[in-house]
Design a protein that fits this description.
It is a single chain. The protein is mostly helical and about 230 residues long. It has one domain: Tetracycline Repressor, domain 2 (Orthogonal Bundle). It contains twelve helices and no strands. α10 runs antiparallel to α12. The longest helix is centred in the middle third of the chain and has 20 residues. The radius of gyration is 19 Å and the shape is elongated.
């Protein structure tokens, strides 16, 4: 395996994200059985597709009764959205706080860039995205749930961080939301499609370090203090 492919083997930041799941409505940790159902559902959805999986299958895979599944999740869509939310929130919690202690903006943005790449390239993320693309037309609520709890959540966190950096005089940005979109796109663009299509032997495949360093350089040239 060449160095390019090695650089793409990034740890899944959402792995194990169902161990301690917080209910967004109550703020309380979900019971262990609910986490068990989510783990089983995640595996089935990503292996078979959303439409092909029944709640009976989820219950069997989780080792619980169907009544237990419905006690925690009223529908299959609700279960899937909960799975996506848990994975995305786990990523956000693990990625953003660590940049607060970065020595400078270049270091902070580099960490954020690698976190973006790690999340986008993670096997769980790719599997969920493929399910969304395949099932989205039949289940539009899934696509909305994915966007709300995934890309939009992270970009809002990043925009908030950029706003704080502007207030500290570390950056000069008129529109942090746009800047957040731009930075994410610069990291995502050269990597995502080729990994999504499993084009591992593409000789033009850029390694993650090159992509992230380039995105940070362009971003700081545009928004760094003048």
């Amino acid at each position: 395996m060449n160095n390019q492919l090695k650089s793409m083997e990034i740890a899944d930041p959402s792995a194990g994200c169902f161990g301690h799941v917080i209910d967004p409505e109550t703020g309380e940790e979900l019971p262990a059985k609910a986490a068990q159902v989510m783990e089983a559902g995640s595996k089935l959805f990503t292996e078979q597709g959303f439409g092909a999986v029944s709640m009976d299958q989820v219950a069997k895979a989780a080792g619980v009764s169907k009544a237990t599944v419905y006690a925690h999740f009223q529908s299959k869509e609700q279960l899937f959205v909960a799975i996506v939310r848990a994975a995305c929130l786990s990523y956000a919690e693990n990625a953003m706080p660590e940049v607060r202690d970065a020595p400078d903006m270049r270091s902070a943005l580099t960490r954020i860039g690698h976190s973006i790449a790690g999340f986008l390239m993670a096997p769980r993320t790719m599997a969920i995205y493929r399910v969304i693309v395949a099932e989205g037309p039949r289940f539009p609520g899934l696509a909305q749930g994915y966007y709300e709890t995934g890309p939009r959540t992270f970009k809002r966190l990043l925009a908030k961080y950029l706003t704080e950096a502007v207030e500290k005089g570390l950056l000069q940005i008129d529109n942090p939301r746009l800047a957040s979109e731009q930075f994410c796109s610069m990291v995502r663009g050269p990597l995502y499609m080729k990994v999504l299509l499993d084009l591992k032997d593409d000789p033009d495949l850029l390694d993650t370090n090159t992509v992230v360093d380039g995105a940070v350089e362009v971003f700081l040239r545009s928004y760094g203090p003048k």
